[in-house]
Design brief:
- The complex is a heterodimer of chains A (about 500) and B (about 500).
- Chain A folds into two domains: about 280 residues, no CATH class; about 220 residues, no CATH class.
- Chain A is built from 20 helices and two strands.
- A two-stranded antiparallel ribbon of chain A has the order 1-2.
- The mean pLDDT of chain A is about 90.
- Chain B is about 75% helix and about 5% strand.
- In chain B, a hairpin with a 2-residue loop joins strand 1 and strand 2.
- Classes of the chains: A mainly alpha (about 500), B mainly alpha (about 500).
C-alpha cells in the first residue's frame, strides 16, 4: 500500500489540493476550510520533499497518468528543476496558510472566507500542475485553473478597485493563455504530438519552418504576460496592490516564479538550446530585462503605497531572471533558478510583513507606516532583514543570486550588464530605505490609534521566511547544487 | 588554546558580549561591566595570537563554504594582527570613556548603543582577520550596517539625513564598485585568497589592472578618499564615543586596512610598482591630504574639523600604499596605529568638552583650558602625535612615509607631507592656544555652574576646575599615554610589519 502510494506521489501532488478545494465548499465553515487548506498545503510540502529526494537519488521521474503510454497519454515529469519549483510553491503555500487566519478574517467578508480557501487551493493545485506536467496542452489546462482562480482571489480584495484590477488581469491573462495555446496548436500541427519531450525530439526536423518560429513568438508573448515581463507587466501592480494582502503574498512568491519556470521549460526543454541560439531571442530578452530592472526600480522609488512599491520591485526582479535566461549559459541559468527560489522567500517575507501591517493599521501607505518600529519592533525588524536580502547584502539569499548573475554577465563579457545589475540593486536600496526611514525615524502621525505587536501566530511564519533568507544565504549548498544541476540539465537538454 | 581556536573566539566573544548586553539591559551597571569584560577578554585573546604571528605563523580557520570554491575563512597575518590589536585595545579605552560620556550626556537607548558597538567590533575583527576577499567583503558590509544605528543614535531628522549619506556612500561604493571588482577578480583568477605577491599578476591585462585598481580603491568607501569622503563628516552626528572609536579607528581604519590588503595581497606590490612610473592613486591621495587639511582649517565645529583631519590622515596611508614599496607599506601600516591613538584622544577631548561645558564650536573655547586643564593637555598630546612630532608615536609613521617617497624617487610627495604637517599645526594648535591663552568672555560661565547639580557621572569639579566625568578622563589618560608609549616602542610595530613590507 505504502509502496504504491510512494509510486503515485507525482499524481497525489496535484490531486490532493485539487480535491481538497471542493471539500472546503461542502463544509463552508471558516475553521474547517482553513484546516483543510492547512493540511493539504503541508502534505503537499512533504510530498514535494519526498519527490525531490527521489529525483536526487534516482534521477528524473516519469509518471504516466492512468497508465497511458507517451505520447498518447499525459506524462507527469519530475526532474531537478520541477522538483525544486514544486518545493518552492508548496513551502510558500504552507507558510502562507499558517499565517493566513488573522489576515483573512480582517480583509475578507466572513461569509466568503471558505471561498477564499477554495480558490487558494485551486490556484495552488494549478501551479503545481503546471510545474509537474510534461504535456504542453495539459500545461495550458493547469495554467487556466490557476489563472481563473487567482482572478477570483484578487477580486476578493476589500476595495472596489480590486474588481477592476482582477478584470484587467483576467483580460490580459486570457490573452496570454490564448497566445500560449495558439503556440501549442502550431507546434501540434508541425509535430503531431503534445508531449514536451516528444515535441522537442521532432522539432529539429522542422526547425527552419516559419510556423515553428511563429509558435515560438506566440508562446514567448503568452508566457511573458503571465510572468510580468516588461512591458507586459501592466496588470501586475494593480493586481498586487488591490488583492487581499495574503493573496498578494502568495501570488508574488509563487505565480510569477512558476511562469518563469514555464518559460525555462518551453525554451530549453521544448525548443532546446540549438533553436534558441539560432533566434535573436538573446538580445531581445536581455534588453527587456535591463529595461525592467532599471525602469521598474525607478518607478518603485516614487511609490507611496508599499504594496505597489514591492509590486514594481517584483517586475524588476523578474527582469533579473530574464537576464539570466538571456545568457543561455550554465551560470546564467543557475542565477535564474537560484533567484527563483530566493526571490520567492524574499518577497514572501516582505509581503507577509505588509499583510501584518495592514492587519494592525488598515493601511500600507508609507506615510501611515511612520513610526511603526516603536509599536511593532519585531515585525519591522523582519522587514529590514528581508529588505537586506532584496538588496543583496552578503549572508542573505539575495546576495547569492546577485553574485551568480554578475558572474554570468562577466563570464559573457557583458560588463555593462554587470554594471546595470549593480545600479539596479542600488536603486533597490533607495526604494527600500524610503520605507525604513519612515518606519524608524518618523513619529506616529497625530491621532493614530495605539497598536500592539502582531500575535505570535503571524510573527512566527514571518520570521520563518526571514530565517530562510539568512539560512539560504549562508548554507548555500542546497540551492546552488540543485540550481547548477538543473541548469546543466536544461542547457544539455535533447536538441 | 591553539591559535585557530583563538581566531574563532576573537569573533565570537564580542557577539556573545552583545547578547549579554541585551539580557542585562535593565541593569546598567552590570551591562557596562559586561561591555568592559568583553572588551578586555577580546583584547587578551587577540594579544595572545601575537607571538604566533611574530614567529611567522599564519593560523587559518575555515568556517563554511559560501559559494562553491569560496569559503568564509579567517587567516591572521601581520597587518591584520596589528589592526586587530589596535581596535580591540582601543575598545577597552573607549568603553571606559563611553560610560562617562553616555551617562554624563544623558543619552537614551544605551543598550542599543552598547549592543551595536559590540557587533561592530566583531565585524571589525572579522575584517582584520579575513582570509580572503569575500570574507573581508562580508565583514565590511556588516560593519557598515551595524554602525548605522550608532550614527543615527539620536533619531532626529538630521541624524536620519546623515545616516542616508553614510549608508548611501558606504553601501553604494561597496556594492557598486568593490563587489564588481571582487567578482571580476574571481572570474579572472579563480581565487580570492590573500596571497603573498598578489593574485592578479599575469592573469589580466594592464588595462584591466588599472580598471580594477579604480574599482577597488573607490569601492572601499571607508578609506574616505576624495571625492567619496563626505560620509565621514556626516557621521559626526553620532555620539562622540562612536566618532572616536568607529570613525577615527575601527571603520575608517578598516577602510585603509582593506586598501593595504588589496594592494599587498590582491594586486601585489611589485605588480603595482611595475605597472607605471607613477599612478593616479598617488595624486588623488596627495590631493586628498592637502584639500582635506585646508577644509579642516575652515571648520569651526570641533568634531567636523577632526573629521576632515581624519580624511586627510587616511590619505597618508593610501599614499603609502600607492607608492608601492616596502617603506610605504611600513609607513602606511604604522600610521594605522599611530593615527588611531592620536585621533581617538582628540575625539575623547571633543566629547569631554561637550559633556562638561556643552561647547561644540572652537570659537567658543576661549580660556576653556583653564577650566579643563586636563582635557586640553590630552588634546595637546594628541595633536602633536597627529602632527607627527617626537616624542610621540606619529613621528615614526611620518618618518617611514617620507622615506617611502625618497625610495620611490617621487620627491614631490615629500613636499605634500611637509605642507600637510604645517597645515596640521595650523588647524590643531590654535585650539590649544585658545584654550590656554585667550581669556574667556565672562558671560559664558556665569550661571551655568550653579544651575546644574554636581554629580559624579556628570563632571569632576575642584575649585575653578570643571572637568569631564572621571571615566572620560581615565580614557583620555590611557590613550595619550599610548601616544607617548608608541614613540618608545615603535620598534615592536616595526618588527611585526617587517615581513609583509619585505624588510628582512
Amino acid at each position: 500500500m505504502l509502496e504504491s502510494l510512494y509510486h503515485h506521489l507525482p499524481a497525489i501532488q496535484v490531486v490532493l489540493p485539487l480535491v481538497s478545494a471542493p471539500i472546503c465548499v461542502i463544509f463552508r465553515r471558516t475553521a474547517i476550510a482553513w484546516s483543510i487548506a492547512m493540511v493539504a498545503s503541508w502534505l503537499s510540502f512533504s510530498i514535494s520533499i519526498l519527490l525531490l529526494e527521489q529525483v536526487n537519488s534516482n534521477g528524473p521521474i516519469s509518471y504516466l497518468l492512468g497508465g497511458w503510454q507517451v505520447p498518447w497519454g499525459i506524462e507527469y515529469k519530475v526532474d531537478q528543476l520541477s522538483a525544486f519549483v514544486l518545493l518552492i510553491v508548496t513551502a510558500i503555500g504552507s507558510i502562507v496558510t499558517l499565517f493566513a487566519p488573522n489576515s483573512v478574517n480582517k480583509e475578507i467578508a466572513s461569509d466568503r472566507i471558505y471561498l477564499f480557501y477554495t480558490m487558494y487551493l485551486l490556484t495552488f493545485a494549478g501551479l503545481l500542475g503546471i510545474t509537474i506536467t510534461g504535456d504542453a496542452f495539459n500545461l495550458f489546462v493547469f495554467l487556466e485553473i490557476s489563472s481563473l482562480s487567482s482572478y477570483v482571489l484578487i477580486s476578493l480584495g476589500g476595495k472596489r478597485n480590486a474588481l477592476t484590477a482582477a478584470y484587467r488581469y483576467l483580460i490580459l491573462g486570457t490573452i496570454g493563455a490564448t497566445f500560449y495555446i495558439i503556440g501549442v496548436g502550431l507546434l501540434y500541427q508541425m509535430t503531431g504530438t503534445l508531449n514536451i519531450a516528444d515535441i522537442s525530439q521532432r522539432l529539429p526536423e522542422v526547425a527552419g519552418i516559419k510556423t515553428v518560429m511563429v509558435a515560438f513568438a506566440f508562446m514567448t508573448v503568452g508566457i511573458g504576460l503571465k510572468l510580468g515581463l516588461f512591458p507586459l507587466h501592466v496588470w501586475l501592480p494593480n493586481a498586487y496592490t488591490y488583492a487581499p494582502s495574503i493573496v498578494t503574498a502568495f501570488l508574488a512568491a509563487t505565480a510569477t516564479k512558476v511562469a518563469v519556470y514555464v518559460l525555462l521549460r518551453i525554451y530549453f526543454s521544448l525548443f532546446g538550446t540549438k533553436i534558441l541560439l539560432s533566434l535573436p531571442i538573446q538580445e531581445f530578452l536581455l534588453i527587456l530585462g535591463l529595461i525592467a530592472i532599471i525602469s521598474m526600480s525607478l518607478v518603485a522609488i516614487y511609490q507611496k503605497n508599499t504594496k505597489r512599491l514591492l509590486a514594481y520591485s517584483s517586475v524588476a526582479q523578474v527582469g533579473y531572471m530574464v537576464i539570466g535566461i538571456s545568457m543561455i549559459t550554465v551560470t546564467g541559468l543557475t542565477a535564474t533558478i537560484i533567484h527563483l527560489f530566493n526571490h520567492a522567500v524574499i518577497k514572501g517575507a516582505l509581503f507577509l510583513v505588509i499583510a501584518a501591517v495592514f492587519y494592525r493599521i488598515n493601511s500600507v501607505k508609507i506615510e501611515d507606516m511612520a513610526g511603526l518600529a516603536k509599536s511593532m519592533p519585531f515585525t519591522m525588524a523582519a522587514f529590514v532583514a528581508a529588505g537586506f536580502s532584496l538588496i543583496g547584502v552578503p549572508l542573505t539569499a539575495g546576495f547569492i543570486s546577485k553574485w551568480y548573475l554578475i558572474l554570468g554577465a562577466i563570464d559573457k563579457g557583458w560588463l555593462f550588464v554587470a554594471v546595470l545589475i549593480i545600479v539596479s540593486s542600488l536603486l533597490a536600496v533607495i526604494y527600500f530605505w524610503k520605507v525604513v526611514e519612515s518606519v524608524y525615524f518618523k513619529e506616529r502621525p497625530p491621532g493614530a490609534i495605539q497598536i500592539k505587536e502582531i500575535p505570535l501566530t503571524m510573527l512566527i511564519p514571518i520570521w520563518i521566511m526571514v530565517g530562510a533568507n539568512f539560512y539560504f544565504g549562508i548554507n548555500t549548498n542546497f540551492t546552488i547544487s540543485i540550481a547548477e544541476k538543473a541548469a546543466k540539465y536544461l542547457i544539455g537538454s535533447p536538441l | 588554546m591553539i591559535p585557530e581556536q583563538l581566531i574563532l573566539w576573537a569573533i565570537l566573544i564580542p557577539l556573545f558580549g552583545s547578547i549579554g548586553i541585551l539580557l542585562t539591559s535593565k541593569i546598567p551597571n552590570l551591562r557596562e561591566t559586561i561591555t568592559l569584560l568583553t572588551a578586555l577578554s577580546l583584547f587578551l585573546i587577540v594579544a595572545s595570537l601575537t607571538p604566533t604571528i611574530l614567529a611567522g605563523g599564519r593560523p587559518t580557520v575555515t568556517l563554511l563554504e559560501l559559494l562553491p570554491g569560496l569559503s568564509i575563512s579567517f587567516t591572521v597575518e601581520p597587518l591584520g594582527m596589528l589592526f586587530g590589536l589596535v581596535a580591540s585595545f582601543l575598545w577597552i579605552v573607549n568603553s571606559i570613556y563611553s560610560i562617562g560620556y553616555m551617562r554624563g550626556h544623558h543619552e537614551k537607548n544605551q543598550t542599543r548603543f552598547y549592543f551595536f558597538f559590540a557587533i561592530a567590533l566583531a565585524s571589525a575583527i572579522g575584517v582584520a582577520f579575513a582570509g580572503n576577499m569575500l570574507t573581508l567583503f562580508v565583514c565590511y558590509e556588516i560593519l557598515t550596517l551595524c554602525t548605522f544605528p550608532l550614527v543615527t543614535h539620536s533619531g532626529k531628522p538630521e541624524a536620519a539625513k546623515s545616516g542616508r549619506i553614510y549608508l548611501g556612500i558606504l553601501l553604494g561604493t561597496s556594492v557598486g564598485l568593490q563587489l564588481l571588482a571582487i567578482i571580476w577578480t574571481w572570474h579572472a583568477t579563480g581565487t580570492l585568497d590573500f596571497t603573498d605577491g598578489g593574485i592578479l599578476e599575469g592573469k589580466v591585462s594592464k588595462v584591466a589592472i588599472s580598471i580594477l585598481l579604480f574599482l577597488y580603491i573607490y569601492g572601499i568607501g571607508k578609506a574616505a578618499l576624495m571625492p567619496i569622503h563626505s560620509w565621514l563628516p556626516a557621521a559626526m552626528v553620532a555620539p562622540t564615543p562612536v566618532s572616536a572609536l568607529l570613525h577615527a579607528v575601527a571603520v575608517v581604519k578598516a577602510g585603509v586596512f582593506t586598501v593595504l590588503k588589496v594592494i599587498i595581497y590582491i594586486f601585489g606590490v611589485d605588480t603595482l610598482s611595475n605597472m607605471s612610473e607613477d599612478n593616479w592613486l598617488m595624486y588623488i591621495a596627495s590631493f586628498t591630504i592637502l584639500a582635506a587639511s585646508c577644509v579642516a582649517l575652515t571648520k569651526d565645529n570641533l568634531k567636523a574639523r577632526l573629521a576632515y583631519s581624519t580624511v586627510s590622515q587616511l590619505a597618508y596611508i593610501v599614499l603609502g600604499a600607492a607608492l608601492a614599496n616596502s617603506m610605504g607599506i611600513m609607513g602606511g601600516g604604522m600610521h594605522i596605529v599611530m593615527h588611531a591613538f592620536g585621533k581617538i584622544t582628540l575625539f575623547f577631548c571633543a566629547g569631554a568638552i561637550l559633556v562638561a561645558s556643552h561647547k561644540t564650536e572652537i570659537s567658543e573655547m576661549n580660556g576653556l583650558g583653564k577650566v579643563m586643564p586636563f582635557t586640553f593637555i590630552a588634546f595637546l598630546i594628541g595633536s602633536l602625535s597627529v602632527i607627527g612630532l617626537p616624542p610621540l608615536g606619529g613621528a615614526w609613521s611620518k618618518w617611514y612615509l617620507m622615506l617611502a617617497t625618497v625610495e620611490s624617487e617621487h620627491l614631490m610627495f615629500i613636499i605634500v607631507f611637509m605642507v600637510s604637517s604645517l597645515l596640521n599645526i595650523a588647524y590643531l594648535m590654535p585650539i590649544v592656544a585658545r584654550g590656554f591663552f585667550s581669556t574667556a568672555k565672562p558671560s559664558i560661565h556665569a550661571g551655568e555652574n550653579k544651575s546644574e547639580g554636581i554629580s559624579f557621572w556628570h563632571s569632576l569639579q575642584i575649585g575653578n576646575i570643571r572637568e569631564a566625568p572621571p571615566f572620560c578622563l581615565l580614557a583620555m589618560t590611557i590613550s595619550s599615554l599610548g601616544c607617548i608609549a608608541l614613540f618608545i616602542y615603535a620598534d615592536n610595530v616595526f618588527q611585526l610589519l617587517a615581513p609583509i613590507a619585505g624588510i628582512k
